[in-house]
Amino acid sequence: MSMTVPFRRLLGFLAAATLLAAAPPARADERADDRTPLGQVAEGLEVALAKYREIERRGGWPLVAGATSLRPGMRDPRVAELKRRLAITGDYDGEDDHVEAGGDADAYGHALIAAVRRFQARHGLEATGWINAETAEELKVPVQWRIAQLAHNLARARRVPRDLGLRYIHVNIPDAHLKVVESGRTLHSARVVLGEIAHATPELSSTITHIEMNPWWNAPTSIVKRILIPKFKSEPKYIAANDYLLLARAGDNKSAVDADRIDWDRITAANFRWQVRQKPGPKNVLGRVVFWFPSKHNVFIHDTAAPELFEDDVRYFSSGCIRVDSAVYMAMLLLRNQDDGSWTEEKINSIIAANEPYKIAFKQPVNVHITYFTAWTDLKGRVQFRKDIYKRDRL
């Protein structure tokens, strides 16, 4: 008796699950642990551009029809096309066929799973080895688009300041990561949350003047009108529960009014007349540490009271500022050689525990560079691509 279609699908699913279980998906931090220092981006892009132009000269790469229906463990003539597609960009090694059972070119086995994961990692996707809709979309991008993307980013890289500073922080918006670089060496990499599309994080270069621990948050008028007033109106108890003050006189905490005595039904963005401040502490939206630098855009780097957002692979939730994971560790890293090494973890934690604002000026400058690279070459020579989240490539 022949197997029913649902039973064959079940067997296919079990085979795929067995293959994928051999190596679980990688987190974004594991996918991109070889980020190129900012000063070397242009050189890497020149090499990548030449490589992709050669790929175009040789005819580009094939379009794999119905790629999302291919699954680990299955045999299909389209698998051979997928292998050819990935081999052209260096993700699949043709020699790997020899380690597949019987060297079957139509088999979706371990070697192809590894190749798909490499491709996914280079495109900022979760490296599952399974072709989902996002992976299929990236596979369909023609080589001519990649060449234009590389050329566009090379032009950006050539505008990077020659003097980046002895030590600097580099935030690449499309990659949603931050690096701490010192003497050309990356000391630390962290996930960041950046501006949503309507409130995009700007590209800029500046110098961090100081760190502030246990900051007050003076809510910008735009955020008060757009987010906080609707929240206060729907839930007045939210104000006290989250350590907000409504000040009759800006900056004067003694002028705080009793929010419970406000008739919120009559309040609008037009007649709301108080400054909104949030006390230092674990509920403060800036978290425990702020890295301040001058900018006409009024953005800065800070900790957060919502660290769970760093678990998302797509992290564009802010109003333009940069929220950084492990902000306290980054502060300790940048202060480690200042004042004869007295800024120990114990000292910094004691300052935070006091819950009072505390400012520390850097004695040696720390520059900050916020860039927008949707393509670059990492330190292992792999060409990386990211989504054009703010549509600045204009391809």
Give an overview in words.
- The structure is a single chain.
- 31% of the residues lie in helices and 19% in strands.
- It is an alpha+beta fold.
- It folds into 3 domains: 5-31 and 61-141, no CATH class; 162-215 and 282-385, L,D-transpeptidase catalytic domain-like (Beta Barrel), CATH 2.40.440.10; 218-278.
- The longest helix has 17 residues, at 5-21.
Helix content: 25-40%
> What would CATH call the homologous superfamily of the largest domain?
L,D-transpeptidase catalytic domain-like
- Helical run tally: 11
- Fill in the CATH topology of the largest domain: L,D-transpeptidase catalytic domain-like
* Unreliably modeled segments: 5-17, 23-33
Note the overall shape.
Answer: globular
Main β-sheet, in a few words?
Answer: 8 strands, mixed, barrel
Instruction: Give Rg in angstroms.
Output: 25 Å
Order of secondary-structure elements: HHHHHHHEEEEEHHEEEEEEHHEEE
Task: Write out the strand line-up for the largest beta sheet, numbering strands in chain order.
Answer: 1-2-3-11-9-8-4-12
Tell how many strands the DSSP assignment holds.
Answer: 14
Q: Cα distance, first to last residue?
A: 55 Å
CATH class of the largest domain: Mainly Beta
Strand content: 15-25%
Number of domains: 3
Query: Can you tell me the CATH architecture of the largest domain?
Result: Beta Barrel
Return the structural class.
alpha+beta
Overall mean pLDDT stands at 89
